[in-house]
Design a protein that fits this description.
Pfam families: Glyco_hydro_4, Glyco_hydro_4C. Helices cover about 50% and strands about 15% of the residues. The protein is built from 17 helices and 12 strands. It binds nicotinamide-adenine-dinucleotide (NAD), ligand LEZUNG72 and manganese (II) ion (MN).
Length: about 450
């Protein structure tokens, strides 16, 4: 069986260690010859690289481990690029969230004004990386997690319309499916979802049992009308994530069909979500003080010890759905498994009454041929209206980032359901332009 060469871009990501555990667990289905880590911060990259050398030496001997800040060394000869950069790092996420709150808007990573600022930063960074990858690895599959995935996907489709080996994904729907499975006493892979929308802006329409075809969605709606305890990822025990999953019951009770992505809370209840926020301590602060600190302390401890086996740092067998999803996707592309994944892909009639150029998040069959969307059909009026407005926002944001067009940036913000007011949008832009010097394309 072929052994693959992969590059993790944004190798310093706090998600990388779990991804490495997943790759060790998946070595039979997705064997590696070489793993390269690429980051634009050498120090961060070196720490993760040294951790990886220890991990692979103990759990996956024979795999060549390389870490670098040089694109040519990173991308030459790779089969897969797994991309998870955070342009500006968590400190700029905090800036995105706090400036939004300062102007009376929802301060969130990928939604509302915060997501707009993040998108304006991510687009130039991701496009430049993909151009570099294509210089040295014209045929590599590029699997992108870098957020805000909806806006990044709009931009990659606009700049590389013929490049069908760029695949944008999100792990939120499967994290939600993990929760459904836990509540039903099953496993996520017992289900096959039917879903439509944009990234972080969608709805489950069916949750089919893979074996019997039974649709669990009606009973899940009934069960989840009241918040349920569930055990999936440690991260979701954190208060802000628990509140997010608990709020699902309000959305299910208020609306008469489907099961919403958790992110719909920000767009259907922006005022309620805004009132929960503290400008002095946002989610970015929680992550910096929590998960990021924890992950990096572990990396430092392992590198200091020089070993993992027999220490308190032996990786959890279950690497979590973030790591599982992207490695499963790479495996499906490599092995032509024809499994179903939720992918952000060009609509092209999948949702028959939505713009064919939209980057919709829908179930796709995946094999060596790439991704093939499963038909959704007509999207009902309420959802069509919401999605078309959100798509216009995302499209204008991507174009503003690519073209440096101030007016498109302003119109995008005014279209966003969590902003709306022109005077607020202009004040947000003034602050974001100042805070993002060196990251955003200059707006004219
Ligand atoms: N799609 C999804 O559902 C999903 C799920 C989780 C996380 N994410 C995204 O994954 C990304 C990583 O998240 P994180 O919390 O690990 O961030 P992080 O800051 O811990 O790691 C990101 C890494 O990217 C590096 N980086 C930034 N800009 C770069 C560039 N231009 N070139 C190369 N490297 C660069 C940083 O130095 C850092 O090491 C974020 O965009 C996050 O939003 C997406
Ligand atoms: O606020 P954060 O940084 O904790 O989360 C923001 C991200 O949330 C989603 O990703 C989840 C993922 O769904 C879950 O499986 C697990 O891996 O945790 C992730 C969060 O860390 C969302 O899909 C991402 O786009 C967000 O960046
Ligand atoms: Mn996501």
């Amino acid at each position: 069986m072929k052994k693959y060469t992969i590059c993790i871009i944004g190798g310093g990501s706090r998600y990388t260690p779990d991804m490495l555990t997943m790759l060790c667990n998946q070595k039979e289905r997705f064997p590696l010859a070489k793993i390269v880590f690429y980051d634009n911060e050498a120090e961060r990259q070196e720490l993760v690289g040294k951790y990886a050398e220890i991990l692979f030496n103990e759990y996956y001997p024979g795999v060549e481990v390389v870490y670098t800040t040089d694109p040519e060394e990173a991308y030459t000869g790779i089969d897969f690029a797994l991309m998870q950069i955070r342009a500006g790092r968590l400190k700029m996420r905090a800036s995105d969230e706090k400036i939004a709150i300062k102007h009376g808007c929802l301060g969130q990573e990928t939604c509302g004004a915060g997501g707009f600022a993040y998108g304006m930063r991510s687009v130039p960074a991701v496009i430049d990386i993909i151009k570099d990858i294509r210089k040295y690895a014209p045929e590599a599959w590029i699997l992108n997690y870098s957020n805000p995935a909806a806006i990044v996907a709009q931009a990659t489709e606009k700049v590389f319309p013929e490049d069908h080996r760029i695949i944008n994904i999100c792990d939120m729907p499967i994290a939600i499916m993990d929760m459904y499975a836990n509540v039903l006493g099953k496993k996520r892979k017992d289900f096959e979802p039917r879903y439509f929308g944009l990234n972080h802006f969608g709805w489950f329409t069916n949750i089919y049992d893979v074996k019997t075809g039974h649709d669990y969605l009606p009973e899940l709606r009934n069960i989840l009308k009241t918040p349920k305890e569930f055990k999936t990822e440690k991260l979701f025990e954190e208060p802000s994530w628990k509140a997010t999953f608990d709020f699902m019951s309000t959305m299910i009770s208020d609306y008469d069909e489907y099961l919403p992505n958790t992110y719909m809370q920000y767009y259907l209840y922006p005022q309620k979500m805004f009132k929960k926020q503290d400008i002095n301590h946002t989610r970015a602060d929680e992550v910096m003080e929590g998960n990021e600190k924890e992950v990096y302390e572990t990396l430092e401890a392992v590198v200091k010890l020089g070993k993992i086996k027999g220490t308190a740092y032996e990786p959890e067998p279950d690497a979590g759905c973030h790591a599982e999803y992207i490695v499963d996707l790479a495996t499906a592309l490599a092995n032509n498994s024809n499994e179903i994944f939720l992918i952000i892909t060009k609509n092209n009639g999948t949702c028959s009454n939505l713009d064919p150029d939209m980057m919709v998040e829908v179930p796709c069959r995946v094999g060596t041929y790439g991704v093939e969307a499963i038909s959704v059909g007509e999207v009902p009026t309420f959802y069509k209206g919401l999605i078309e407005n959100q798509h216009a926002y995302e499209k204008l944001t991507a174009e503003a980032a690519l073209e440096g067009d101030y007016m498109k940036a302003l119109k995008a913000l005014v279209l966003n359901r969590a902003v709306v007011n022109t005077d607020v949008a202009k004040a947000l832009l003034d602050d974001y332009i100042e805070a993002n010097k060196g990251y955003w394309t200059e707006l004219k």
